[in-house]
Each structure stands twice: as C-alpha cells, then as structure tokens.
Amino acid sequence: MMALISDEDAGExxxxxxxxxxxxxxxxxxxxxDDALIIGPGGIPxxxxxxxxxxxxxxxxxxxxxxxSYQTSIEGYSNIAVKDNGGAALEISPEGEVSGxxxxxxxxxxxxxxxxxxxxxxxxxxxxIIADPRDLWxxxxxxxxxxxxxxxxxxxxxxxxxxxxxxxxxxxxxHAQVGSYRDDDFSIRADTETGWHILIVADGAGxxxxxxxxxxxxxxxxxxxxxxxxxxxxxxxxxSVVEGYADDPESWALMVREELLKPVLPEAALEAARAIELExxxxxxxxxxxxxxxxxxxxxxxxDRWFTASxxxxxxxxxIFDVDKNEVAVICRPDSGEYAGQTRFLxxxxxxxxxxxxxxxxxxxxxxxxxxxxxxxxxxxxKFPTDAAxxxxxxxxxxxxxxISKEVDLQSNNPAIQEQMLSWLDFWxxxxxxxxxxxxxxxxxxxxxxx
Length: 451
Fold this sequence. Notes:
- This protein is an alpha+beta fold.
- 29% of the residues lie in helices and 29% in strands.
- The protein has helices at residues 7-10, 26-33, 48-52, 173-176, 211-233, 235-243, 249-261, 265-282, 354-360, 377-383, 387-390, 393-407, 417-424, 444-450, and strands at 2-4, 15-17, 38-39, 45-46, 57-60, 64-65, 70-73, 78-84, 91-92, 97-100, 106-116, 119-130, 153-159, 163-170, 184-190, 197-203, 294-302, 305-313, 317-322, 327-330, 361-366, 371-375, 436-443.
- Strands 13-14-23-22-19-20 form a six-stranded antiparallel beta sheet. Strands 5, 6, 8, 11 and 12 form a five-stranded mixed beta sheet that branches.
- α5 runs antiparallel to α8 (265-282).
- The termini are far apart.
- Residues 1-44, 46-51 and 447-451 have low confidence and may be disordered.
C-alpha cells in the first residue's frame, strides 16, 4: 500500500512504502474511537446504533379517496405510537385503529413505533390517497373578446299565473379543460297574456367551429317566431280542439299533429335553419360550421287541462313527469344519424320529407303533471343513458326526489333557483363531460302540492 512518509522519517514528503506494521487502516483508526464500528456494503461505515437497529417493518395501508373519510386498522401490533405522520392528517390509536377526515390526495409515509409479540419494533407505513377525478380537470376561461364569444354558463327564469320556467346551461368539463366555448344554448318564455309556455334547448356540434353561434341563432329565431305562429294558427282553434278530445286519443293526436301543429312547430324550426344558412352565406362560411340540434316544447292550460306539444331535430329529450301517478311520458323521438353515436342536425334539408316531420311532432293532453323538461344530451346521457331509462318512471322518480330536488328548491318563490340549477349542473358523471342544458316548466298547482 502506498503512503506518505513524513519529514521526520525522510526529511520531505515523497511517495514510498511504509512497513506493514506501520500501516494504519482508516477503519482501525476509527475503531479506536468507536469499537462498535461495522463496515457496511461498499466500505461505508455504520455506527453501532445503526447496526443495532433492525430494518423497520413495512406496512401498506389500504388506499383512500380524496375528500372522503378514511378508516382502516393495523393488525399484529400493540402500543402503537406515531413518530412522524408524514403529513397525513390521521389519528392512530395504540390498538391500531386508523382514521382521518377529508383526506388530501397524495403518497404518505408514516413512521411508527409499536410492540410486536412483546418486542419493540419500528414500522414504516405507506398510504396512497387517490385523487378525485374532478380535481384533475382544469377550468380555463374562454376568450370573451373573440368574435362570437359565449359566456361559459347562463340561466333564466320566467313565470305566468299558471306555471314558472327555470333554465340553466353550463359549459362541459371537456370544453373547460381546453378553454373552449359552451356550444349549448336555450330560450324560454312564459307569456302572461296568451298563457303559452315555451322551452327551447339546442346543442351545437362539438366538431363544428361555430356551432355555439348556430345554437344561439336557432333558439333566438324560434323564440321570436313561435308566439306569432301560435297566435295565428293555433289559438283560434285550440279551445274547440281541446274540448273535442274524444275516446280515441290516437285519432285525436293524429288530427292535432297534422292540422294544428305541423304548420307551427316545424315552421318555426325551418325559420331557424334558414337563418343559419343566411348567416353562413353572409360570413362566407359553410352552414355545417353552425351545426346544432334543436328541441322545442310548448304548453298551455286550456279548460283545466294542459295542452303540450314538442318538435325536435337531433338528440336530447323532452318528457312530462307526474310524481303523484309515478308516470312519465316521453314526447320526443331519438334522432340518430347514419352511424352509431351520431345525431342529426338542424338544416333546411331536414324538412323535405313530410312523413318524417310528422314523426318529430308529439302532443299530450292531461289535467296535471309535475314537470315538463327539455334537455340536451349532456343531461340525458348522464341521467337517462338509454331510451328505456328515459321512459322508466322509477328512474324518473329517483331522479326527481333523490337527485335534482335535493340540490334545487323547485319553488317559484325561491330567489336562488337559478344559482342552484347551475350548481346542480356541475354534477359528476363518469365519462359524461359535455355541455349541459335543461329547461323545466312546473305548473303552480303541482308545485303547491309538493309543499
């Protein structure tokens, strides 16, 4: 082994060989100070304290979920004490009962002391708190200074002597994640003079660049056109039509759809399709860039009965639900495209087939009901994922009593009803992150009966 010879040995420091007896290994020098020194792997010294302590027992605690309470137990130990909680807000009893509230997502390592079979041991406990998927979504505000900008959420409320309407629309998480716009839209009206209640919702196609403008135009044009058409073509005959309701509802409904509603509901929708084509031409765009669905529902009380009708192009849903009878009537037609998962969109070409138009018109006559609902597929897909579910009265009963009514005080005198509706629209539904729009009409009598 090479060493340095001191001045005392050779007068100057030069490389040389020391006799074996004079070789002093570092470990030997340190051992004089600490006889318990042990050389570990790689020649790294370990102190006597370290060497006397065995490796800690390793325990994996069961996973937890963020924002939720947590409970588990550590088996096989007693007299457990926490030396380092690793940032986890947990309580651990000496018997090993572990609990925590409103856990924060993350990976935690806890250092514990305990007795195992009467012998002191250290425990290294690992804990994973899984993040809530909702926390992983971003909410990037859309550019409100850009052309055709649309606010990320909207709501409205109106009321007549017979009923009130509340509507809300919220940008989906998939749009908020990238800062894009809400493509849905709606319009509502409760006409105190004529008694007509109008609910319109529209869902712009996510793949169409200006679909948000298409849905806005559609709702705006239909809301302007319907009161005029209803006054001219429906109101003069409506009283006699309702009073002429016979024992053959199917024949009556066919007559009403053909003679009374066909010149009104499809005509208002066609005006919206023409307006979109005009906007496309004036802005040198293709009409497909404004693609949107359209759902229309109207209702009026006549001779103590509610006359309700609907017309739609594309997906979404319209339904009448009666809590007292536990009955639901779906008054819309699933409107799929050529392939699965597709839908049809508002366009002038959709009005060429008279028979097809008749299949889109629905009419209903009844004394009472709880709610008339018009929804885009952001709501129907999450709450009523199949056509059968939309028609299922039990699912509707649970939706009404255990879901929306838990979050929204559906009373006409509730000043916070719009805010509550918007808050409810933020519900979590795995895999359903599209825009959500819903319009509800509640007859005052039905509301009072629920008080």
